[in-house]
Amino acid sequence: MSAQASTLQQANKQQASSLLRKNIRKFVNNRLAMIGLVFVVLIVLSSIFAPLLTSYDPSQISLGEKNLSPCAAHILGTDNLGRDVFSRVLYGGRISVLVSVLGALMGSFVGMVLGSIAGYFGGKVDMLLVRLSEIFQTFPEMILIMILVAILGQGVGNLILVFSVTGWMTTFRMVRNEFLALREETYVQVCEAFGMSKAAIMFKQILPNVLSPVIVSTTVNVAGFILSEAGLSFLGVGVPSSVPTWGNILNAAKSVEVVSNYWWLWAVPGAVISIFVLAINFFGDGLRDVLDPKQQ
Predict the structure, then answer these.
(1) Rounded Cα gap, residues 274 and 276, in angstroms
(2) pLDDT tens digits, the chain, 296 residues: what are they?
(3) What contacts 180, CB < 8 A, 6 or more positions away?
(4) 3-state DSSP helix/strand/coil % of the chain, to nearest 5
(5) Distance between CA atoms of 77 and 151, rounded to whole angstroms?
(6) 78 forms bridges with which residues in the sheet?
(7) Residue 148 burial (CB count, 10 A)
(8) Which are the contacts of 37, defined by CB distance < 8 A and separation ≥ 6?
(9) N or C: which end of the chain has fewer CB within 10 A?
(10) How far apart are CA 12 and CA 293, in angstroms?
């Protein structure tokens, strides 16, 4: 028996390894997904290692150098306070990416927990949680975010909390639907017959089988929250203006004079936001093709 078990275990490992290699090869062959991954990694690493790429402090004011066009000393120019735009874009990426990634991860976590509970227990619990998600979805997402920001106030931590509260519904629906189907599977009934706790069945046995769509939806939420943070900061209700973010840099473009005469103050952060969001979407599409069984 031990020899047969060992042989079976080895066969399962080989099959898993073969599937992993197949999925990696499929992802690598997806050109858009690879391009997206390269740009995401490039932008994230540039933000992390910003001190190595620029010697300027993003908050350093130099009124004698304000509104300089791109030149050798300031490769992306300066703003109306003489702050280096290149350094502000690099350091601003730290906050913008941090807020969007943490908000998406926390929102997905909330959605997974609530979706698992609703899908496994069903009945009144399911109905209550579904109605709760419908209430949240009644409001346009940006309006809901602005209401919560007005209640909680500005700040990086508050914005992450707001994104967590407003970003769980899609994940909740996906996890709930998968649980409704998987809870009827034989292995779940076997676990229940052996007296395994409901929490163990939900989070150790069923949930790992529904992580693929959750990962994809999380990448989509990251892209959406990048745009939300930029929009809120542009309107002056997101991260405080003293903190460099891509949205706060774009805030200068509210002036017609800036749009007309100082293109580098809005074109550069706008291009970075667009490239990053596109890259995240391409990367997410590649993950979906690899991880979603329906796309196989």
Answers:
(1) 6
(2) 445 545 545 544 555 566 667 777 888 888 888 999 999 999 999 999 989 998 888 888 887 888 888 888 888 888 888 888 899 999 999 988 999 999 999 999 999 999 999 988 888 898 999 999 888 888 777 788 888 888 887 888 888 888 888 888 889 998 998 888 888 888 888 888 888 888 888 888 888 888 888 888 888 889 888 988 888 887 777 787 778 888 888 887 777 777 788 888 888 888 999 999 999 999 988 888 777 655 55
(3) 119, 122
(4) 80, 0, 20
(5) 37
(6) 84
(7) 17
(8) 279, 283, 286
(9) N
(10) 19
* Cα dihedral 280, 281, 287, 288 in deg (nearest 10): 160
Nearest-angstrom CA–CA distance, 257 and 263: 10
Q: What is the DSSP string of 16-76?
A: HHHHHHHHHHHHHH-HHHHHHHHHHHHHHHHHHTHHHH--S-TT---GGGTTPPS-SSSTT
Find out whether 7 and 14 touch, Cβ atoms under 8 Å. no
What does the block give as tokens for 55?
A: 């010697």
